Amino acid sequence: MKRKTLVVLSLLVCLIVVGVGQVGAAPIVLRFGGIQSVTDTTTRAMMRMAEQVEKESDGRLKIEVYPASQLGDAVSQIEGVMMGSLEMFCDAGEWCSQFVKDWNVMALTFVFDDEAHLRNFLGGPVNGAIEEQLRAERGVRVVANNWIRAPRVITSRKPILKLEDLQGLKMRVPEIKMYLESWQALGTKPTMVAWSEVYLALRQGIVEAAEGPLDTMYTMKFYEVGPHITLTYHLMSNMNVLINDRKFKSLPADLQEILIKAANDAGDWFSATVRQMSVEYVEKMKEGGAQFYEVDIAPFKAKMPALAAKMEEEGIWSKGLYEQVQALR
Fold first, then answer.
1. How far apart are CA 221 and CA 285, in angstroms?
2. At a CB cut-off of 8 Å and minimum separation 6, what does 269 contact?
């Protein structure tokens, strides 16, 4: 009896030790980088995602959010996700065009007619194949692509009312090839400036104009130094939530599911909030002295088919891809 009692007691002790070890285990921590301002809707959505993940995982998985380029510019952060020195990153899908060539088509000006057209692309097999290429070749997984941004507009130091007003204009562009090609085709003199430096570049006249999502004209305060905002809606784009694929695969299956669900829930919230806030931000910018202009975009769009043909000929993206995207209208 004594021996049986000792065996039972030993088993109980083992169970208690294992239980204590599980309860006291340190949470898995993922660093989540971004480049938008602390108050931007993107950052707020990233924070909501982090809160949901921690809650639904009972604290087993935590996400630390680093906005406002604290961890570097977009390209260096994506490279960090590839190498595994950074676990996660969120910003415009077209940033990845530097690592998977077919995503260059997303950064072609006027490639998408509207949000429905963009969503048809993001949810379809063409984009699915590109995302898989990013995972297989670069080790980066897209866990959510449904963060739909506000349409992009032009902010400038002087009014832009027609295509001719762009000729020779010093236009800020990001470090994305198709932005450079598109704005050259439209007649500007593109200048690459980091997103965090656009305000100063506009204020000092280093550039005369910049472009970006409508809501960021307010959150980044660009309207203060580029008070003329032209509603070209020249690009519809999304935010991709990226994670190092090895890190993702190392997570228990239930945490993978929690992460994916939280990323997509945050995307739904982001998209709805961007639509709502853009309306409010326009009114606030008007109160701050900004002027808004609607223009005939047909002459702008007419420049793009020839550029698309040139890009395909140069192998910037796969043959026939532009036509595939246009067929998704």
1. 9
2. 45, 48
